[in-house]
Amino acid sequence: MSESDVTRGGLRGARPGRDAVTGAQDAGRSRRGRRRRGRGRGEQPMVPEARFSSYYGRPILNKPTWQALDIAGYLFLGGLAGASSLLAAGGQASGRPGLARVAKLGAAGAISGSLGALVHDLGRPARFLNMLRVFKPTSPMSMGSWLLAGYAPLTMAAAAADVTGRARVAGAGATAAAACLGPAVATYTAVLLSDTAVPSWHEGYRELPFVFAGSASSAAAGLALACAPAGQTAPARRMAVLGAGLELGAFQLMKRRMGLVAEPFEQGGPHRLLRAAELLTAGGAALAAYPGTGRRRGRACAVAAGVALLTGSAALRFGVFHAGVASAEDPRYTVVPQRERLRARTG
Amino acid sequence: MSEGDTTAVSATGGEPPPSGNLLSGPQPNVAGAAGYPDAPPRVGFFTDTSVCIGCKACEVACKEWNAVPEDGLELTGMSYDNTQGLGADTWRHVAFIEQRLPETGREPGGGHEGFDAFEAARNLGTSPSPSPSPSPDGAISPVSPDGRTELRWLMSSDVCKHCTHAGCLDVCPTGALFRTEFGTVVVQADVCNGCGYCVPACPYGVIDQRKEDGRVWKCTLCYDRLGVGMEPACAKSCPTDSIQFGPLEELRARAAARVAQLHAAGVTEARLYGESPQDGVGGDGAFFLLLDEPEVYGLPPDPVVTTRDLPAMWRHAAVAAVSLAALGVASFAGRRR
C-alpha cells in the first residue's frame, strides 16, 4: 500500500502520487509474480500461463477441513488393510500360514487404525454412529461407512481366529469374506476424494481408483515382505511389482489427462512427497523383484524393500491429499478450467 | 449413460447427457423430487448487484437473527471488504471490488453534463420499456468531480446458492443436510457430526466448519422465518431491494426484465448468474445480476455439482477393485518359489 505514515505532526513519508493499482488487477499481478518465483527450475509447465480474474486472489472454494494425518493416514491404512486381506486369503488357500498370519494381523491392525483416524477427524467424534443413520449411494462417505462396518469385524474375526487357533472354519470364512470386500475398501477412497469440487481430486476420478489400488497392493506387499517368513513371500514379491507398476502407470496417465489441474502435483511439498513416493515404490519393487530377496539370507533386503514400499505408499497418499488442498486454495485451478469449459461450449 | 459417453463428454467439455434429473440437469419440482407431495412454491433470492450500495445491513441482520457468532475482526487491506468470504460464521458476505473500468467501450473522460442521473433512475424504476439512454457512452459510469471515469466500485451480497442439485446435500453421510419443503438446503445442527465432507463438495465455497463447535454451518434461507410466512432477515433489511426474496419463478421473470432494462439503458455488461436451470447445478435458488465476470466477485464461472460424475466414479472404482482382486490372484498364480 502507501509508504506514508499518519502521525500527530501530519503526514510523514512520501506518497507516490495517487496511482496505486486497484484491487482486481493487483491480485492478478502478485499471483503471477509468485508463480514465476516458484518455477525457477524443474519441470516445465504443461499448459501455458493463462490470465484469469479473481476476487483479490482469494480462493473460490473452502478448502477441506480434514487433518492430513487423519485422512491421508486413513487412505493409506485403508489401502493397506484392503490389499492385505487379499494376501491373507491367498496365503491361507495356498498353504502359506506365515504369510496369511502377517496379512490378517496387518489388515485388522490397519483397519482399526483407520477407523480411529476417521473418528478422530470428526468435529463431533461422539456422534460417529450418525454415519449409520442413512444409507446413501450419493455419499461415498456413507457407502464407505457401511463398507467398513461390514469389513472391519471380518478382519478382526479372521485375525482372532488365526492367533487363537480356535473356530478355524469361521476364521477361514471371515478371511474369504474380507478378501471379497478388501478391494472395495482399498479403492472407494478414491471416489471419496474425487466426489468433491476440489479440482485436482475431482478431475482425476478416472485414474485415481487405479492409483490407489496399486498403492494399496504395494503397501500390503511391503508389510508382508518385511514381516512374513522368507520362504512364503513369493506372492508378496509379485504383488509388489504388479502394484508398483499399476500405481506409477496410472498416476502418470492421470497427470497427463488432467491438464492444468495436474500442476499442484508438480509443485512444492506435494511434489516432493510424490517424487519420494515414486522413488521408494520403484526402488522397493526392484528390491522385491531381486531374486536374493526371497531367500533366507536376503532377510535384510526383504525388510528394506518392505519399508520402502510402505513409506512410498504413505507418501503417495499424503502427496495426493496435500495437492488437492493446494488446488482448492488457488482460485486459478477453479477459474481457468471452468473458463475453458465455457469457451469450448459456446464455441 | 455408458462409460464411453462419459469420457467423450468430459474430454470435449460438452453438455452432459440427461440422467433423469436426479444428480444433474433441470429439475422443475425440486421439493417434490425430495419427497414433499404438496410442497409450496420454491423460494429463493434474486440479488441485483447493480443497486447494491455495500452497506452490509444484510450481513448484520443475518448475524443478529441467526445468532451467528463473531467471525474474527481482521482488516484485510485489500478493499472495504473485511468479511472476506462465506464460511461457518458468515452467511451473507458483501463483496467489494474496486477496479479500473474494463474494456466496456466507454470513453474515459466522456462528458455527462447533459445527463440527469436522477431522471434516469426514475425512468428505470417505472417505465416498462425504458427509452434509450440519452448518453450512449454510459449512463452509470462513475464520474469524479474533474470528469474522469477511471474507477468503478462493484458491490455484491453473496449467499448460499441453495442449488437445485446441491453437492453438500448429496455427499452428507448422516442426513444432517436436507431439502426443505421450500426447496432450500438446510443443516440440522443436532444431527451433523462434523465429518466435513460437505465443505470441499460445495462448488461455491459456502459451507464451512465452525472450529470451536466441530459442526458445519451455512445460510438456512431463514427456514424459521419462512415457516411463519416472513421473508429472510437479509432481504428484509436490504435498503435498496438489491436482495429480493420470493417464489423462484417470479424472481426469474423479474430478473429477466431487469436485465433487459439495464441493457436498454446501455449497461451491456449486466448478466444473470446462476439463474439458468441448464447450468451445472441445475440452477441456483439464490441467483444474481452481475456487472462483470463471476470470478471477479469470487464466484466460479461454470460450477458443476460434483455428484454429476458420481456414477462414472463408482464405475471406475468398481473396475479398479476388480483389477486389484485380479492382481491379488495373479500374485498367487504361477510356479511356487
UniProtKB/TrEMBL annotation, chain A:
The lineage of its organism: Bacteria, Bacillati, Actinomycetota, Actinomycetes, Kitasatosporales. The chain crosses the membrane at residues 71-90, 143-163, 170-190, 210-230. Keywords: Cell membrane, Membrane, Transmembrane, Transmembrane helix. It is found in: Cell membrane. It comes from the Bacteria. Its main location: membrane. Residues 1-46 are annotated as: Disordered. It holds the Pfam family NrfD. It is a multi-pass membrane protein. The keyword Isomerase does not apply. Belongs to the NrfD family. InterPro entries: Electron_transfer_protein, NrfD-like. Residues 30-39 have a biased composition (Basic residues). One of its GO terms (cellular component) is plasma membrane. This is Polysulfide reductase.
Automatic annotation (TrEMBL), chain B:
Keywords: 4Fe-4S, Iron, Iron-sulfur, Membrane, Metal-binding, Repeat, Transmembrane, Transmembrane helix. Residues 43-73, 151-182, 183-212 form the 4Fe-4S ferredoxin-type domain. [4Fe-4S] cluster 2 binds at residues 62, 219, 222, 234. [4Fe-4S] cluster 1 binds at residues 52, 55, 58, 238. [4Fe-4S] cluster 4 binds at residues 172, 192, 195, 198. Residues 1-35, 122-146 are annotated as: Disordered. GO terms for cellular component: cell envelope. The lineage of its organism: Bacteria, Bacillati, Actinomycetota, Actinomycetes, Kitasatosporales. This is Ferredoxin. The chain crosses the membrane at residues 313-333. [4Fe-4S] cluster 3 binds at residues 160, 163, 168, 202. Its cofactor is [4Fe-4S] cluster. Residues 1-10 have a biased composition (Polar residues). Pfam families: Fer4_11 (PF13247). It is found in: Cell envelope. It comes from Streptomyces spiralis. GO terms for molecular function: 4 iron, 4 sulfur cluster binding; metal ion binding. Binds 4 [4Fe-4S] clusters per subunit. It comes from the Bacteria. One of its GO terms (biological process) is cellular respiration. The keyword Transcription does not apply.
